Amino acid sequence: MIKEIQEQIRQYDTIIVHRHERPDPDALGSQLGLVKLIKERYPDKHILAVGENEPSLAFLGMMDKVDDKLYNDALVIVCDTANTARIDDKRINQAKYVIKIDHHPNEEPYGDLVWVDTAFSSTSEMIVEFYIQGQEEGYTLSSDAALLLYAGIVGDTGRFLYNNTTAGTHRRTAILVEQGFNQTEFYTKLHKKDLKMSRLQGYVLQNFTIVEGVGVMRLTREDLEKFSVTSNESSQLVNAFSDVEGLRTWVFFVEEQDQIRVRLRSKGPVINGIAAEHNGGGHPMASGATVYSWEEADEVVAKLVAVSK
Ligand SMILES: [Mn+2]
């Protein structure tokens, strides 16, 4: 598979890398890390990253402006995105050839070539594997690229805490750390928390409820306004109360304009089936969904209670 991806990259002069909307460190790290790897291997090719910029992660890098007509002869690679609806920038339809690289369950195998492997902690870890196998083809790893991929792995493993962290994750991460980027500076930037987020965290810890082993937090639009926090920012707090004894699953509801975002997490029971029943999906232990009323939110809680017994 990696050989086929290398071959496609070799053939195209213009390569545009996409990832999912509302990018997290893995989406940006895998996207920008791959861009750097390819650029370093093929300095004369035109390698671009597209999508909306994410202000809270701007220190990782910014997106390129890409003209529509560039797509006509382009290879597009989409990182960390399970389905086409979540791809940031829909112009992938205009590309000549599309490659999907992802570690989420392969719900929608879009594109001409699909490399999906849920055994990896993160798409960034897959890109490290791509580099390892690409060394004999002349791929090199700069400390800048290593930092981006490290950011993605750290993000998706919760600093190597979640159960998606494998021996392979540590081996691949070691290769990144060897490139000698500044870890202290990176963590300072990643974990900087402004006052409003600290206040909101306090509010979440005071107000989440536990229903028969299920932790539940409901953030309304008024709450977000009161703390001046966006829905996307509030998602950083999804694990704020996960350590509370007795919790088997938990759910974080965030009310947006016309919908309520749902983030589901688990320490054992499989919860992505519940997500799929409510316009979502994801990993067995970490999924996302969307509901359209607080009554439907209560249904999700009832289902979590049932699987958590
Ligand atoms: Mn990911």
TrEMBL record:
Lineage top rank: taxon: Bacteria
Lineage: Bacteria, Bacillati, Bacillota, Bacilli, Bacillales
InterPro entries in UniProt: DDH_dom, DHH_sf, DHHA1_dom, Oligoribo/pAp-PDE_c-di-AMP_PDE
EC number: 3.1.-.-
Gene: nrnA_1
Domain DHHA1: 226-304
Name of protein: Bifunctional oligoribonuclease and PAP phosphatase NrnA
Species per Swiss-Prot/TrEMBL record: Halalkalibacter krulwichiae
Catalytic class of the enzyme: hydrolase
Domain DDH: 15-153
Keywords assigned: Hydrolase
Gene Ontology molecular-function annotations: hydrolase activity; nucleic acid binding
